[in-house]
Amino acid sequence: MEEIAQLVQQYGLEEDPEHVIIPYTDKDGRKKRCYLLKRRFIRILYAEGHSIDYPLAHVIEATVRHPELRLSEALDLLYRELDIKPPEPPETENSE
């Protein structure tokens, strides 16, 4: 969680014992906050039926950079900007 503490300090974020709190301004100029649970990974369930666990540090970075986007879109854009490979969905067994 040291990496999370560094991101909180770097971006001037807030936190409580259970959350990292990201303040941002929406497209209409209203001040809002995004609360992320302090867990090692955040799981996103996709409509295609799979899920991917993303490191909390990546979720924070994507949310800070692109708060107006859905988290899945913000993460995809973050990985493209940083030119790093995103986590893969877990392998599933094919039933015949």
Describe the model.
It is a single chain. The protein has 96 residues and is of the alpha+beta class. The protein has one domain (2-82). It is 33% helix and 27% strand. It has helices at 2-11, 56-65, 71-82; strands at residues 14-15, 19-25, 31-37, 41-45, 51-55. It has a 3-stranded antiparallel β-sheet with strand order 1-2-3, with helices on one face. Strands 4-5 form a two-stranded antiparallel ribbon. The termini are far apart.
How much is the radius of gyration in Å? 15 Å
Structural class: alpha+beta
Question: Mean pLDDT, nearest integer?
Answer: 91
The beta-strand count equals 5
Key features?
96 residues; alpha+beta; 3-stranded antiparallel beta sheet; two-stranded antiparallel sheet; 5 strands; 33% helix; 27% strand; globular
What's the short version?
This protein has 96 residues and is of the alpha+beta class. It contains three helices and five strands, in the order αβββββαα.
List the helices and strands and how they pair.
Blueprint (H helix, E strand, L loop, with lengths): L1 H10 L2 E2 L3 E7 L5 E7 L3 E5 L5 E5 H10 L5 H12 L14
Antiparallel strand pairs: 1-2, 2-3, 4-5
